[in-house]
UniProtKB/TrEMBL annotation:
Residues 37-180 form the Potassium channel inwardly rectifying transmembrane domain. It comes from Orthonyx spaldingii. The gene is Kcnj8. Its main location: membrane. Belongs to the inward rectifier-type potassium channel (TC 1.A.2.1) family. Residues 188-358 form the Inward rectifier potassium channel C-terminal domain. The record marks N167 as: Role in the control of polyamine-mediated channel gating and in the blocking by intracellular magnesium. It catalyses: K(+)(in) = K(+)(out). This is KCNJ8 protein.
Length: 421
């Protein structure tokens, strides 16, 4: 081993290993592009360096509705506690100014008919309990207000008004947070992937949308936008350039009847931003197709909006969605387990522009697919024929093995007789 090690210098071995590593292609992961709209419909946007924070306080109701549940509950709890403590301090000051805290008044109250502003308020704790009783109207026990102090009546009216305002704001925010429009959008689903295939002789961009609830979305409409980074002829870079693309709808209006899952189709024509993109160019494109579904909830009458997006890696060229609606015993059944399933179909790999310039490409593609389909059918038939022949041969062999051979019996007289059993 030592002799062999000394034959090849160590420097040469290291140089050879380095050369072999250089020859091997290194596959690097493509940097993941930031999405403008996530798959669940959330906007992937961060607001930074907002100097005018006071604008959020001018619309305090919307700010409270937009907050998270834990923040909203903390704010309402602190508002109730602060209001109770504030008015407890005011009741304590009213009682202290009137002399209700003086122990001598309690001893002389029977003889001089002393009447306090609020009975049984002798400390801050009792004033705090009385404040809670007044604001939440849980009923008065031993502590109650008398007609001795007009200031106490004013404080009572003021605390009732503040308590009603806090209750109204709290109930309104809780109702709006529980009945937000995006909650209904959770049951509006889109296919995880979109496809590009030929429909009616045209290349089309298609995706599937469905509603999981039986209550329908009234006046539902679908919009598609392409978001991409563009540069103007003047050199201006637009990082988020939005372009609306039309949706193929046989109805004159853009509304759809979303009673069952539908395949939304966009014809790639001269107006489409995908007109010059081929199958090989699709993976290199830095674009994002945003899908927006809007409609009115049938049960609540609130307008809802569901969103999703498709990047280049999520678009399958030459695929088609499988049918999922079947008729079973007079009822249309939808199999949502196949909602996003696709099947590979014949589609030209060129762009829509090339397809319009050379319509023969589509005919050649369909002919090739037909030939390949026939060849596959022939192969299947030949395989079935071979399998049947093999099965028949195996059955013959088994039958031949079960045949009983002829046996000769020798009689004692020496004559032979052949018998078959």
């Amino acid at each position: 081993m030592l002799a062999r090690k000394s034959i090849i210098p160590e420097e040469y071995v290291l140089a050879r290993i380095a050369a072999e590593n250089l020859r091997k292609p290194r596959i690097r992961d493509r940097p993941r592009k930031a999405r403008f709209i996530a798959k669940n419909g959330a906007c992937n946007l961060a607001h930074k360096n907002i100097r005018e924070q006071g604008r959020f306080l001018q619309d305090i109701f919307t700010t409270l509705v937009d907050l998270k549940w834990r923040h909203t509950l903390v704010i309402f709890t602190m508002s109730f506690l602060c209001s109770w403590l504030l008015f407890a301090m005011m009741w304590w000051l009213v009682a202290f100014a009137h002399g209700d805290m003086d122990p001598s008044t309690e001893n002389t109250s029977n003889s001089t008919k002393w009447t306090p502003c609020v009975t049984c308020v002798r400390s801050f704790t009792s004033a705090f309990l009385f404040s809670i009783e007044v604001q939440v109207t849980i009923g008065f026990g031993g502590r109650m207000m008398t007609e001795e102090c007009p200031l106490a009546i004013t404080v009572l009216i003021l605390q009732n008004i503040v308590g009603l305002i806090i209750n109204a704001v709290m109930l309104g925010c809780i109702f709006m947070k529980t009945a937000q429009a995006h909650r209904r959008a959770e049951t509006l689903i889109f296919s995880r992937q979109a496809v590009i295939a030929v429909r009616n002789g045209k290349l089309c961009f298609m995706f599937r949308v469905g509603d999981l609830r039986k209550s329908m979305i009234i006046s539902a409409s679908v919009r598609i936008q392409v978001v991409r980074k563009t540069t103007t002829p003047e050199g201006e870079v637009i990082p988020i350039h939005q372009v609306d693309i039309p949706v193929d709808n046989p109805i004159e209006s853009n509304n759809i009847f979303l009673v069952a899952p539908l395949i939304i189709c966009h014809i790639i024509d001269k107006r489409s931003p995908l007109y010059d993109i081929s199958a090989s160019d699709l993976a290199l494109q830095d674009l994002e197709l945003i899908v927006i579904l809007e409609g009115v909830v049938e049960t609540t009458g609130i307008t809802t909006q569901a969103r999703t997006s498709y990047v280049a890696e999520e678009i399958l060229w030459g695929h088609r969605f499988v049918p999922i609606v079947t008729e079973e015993e007079g009822v249309y059944a939808v199999d949502y387990s196949k909602f996003g399933n696709t099947v590979k179909v014949a589609a030209p790999r060129c762009s829509a522009r090339e397809l319009d310039e050379k319509p023969s490409i589509l005919i050649q593609t369909l002919q090739k697919s037909e030939l390949s389909h026939q060849n596959s059918l022939r192969k299947r038939n030949s395989m079935r024929r071979n399998n049947s022949i093999r099965r028949s041969n195996s059955m013959r062999r088994t039958n031949s093995s079960l045949i009983v051979p002829k046996v000769q019996f020798i009689t004692p007289e020496g004559s032979q007789s052949a018998s078959e059993t």
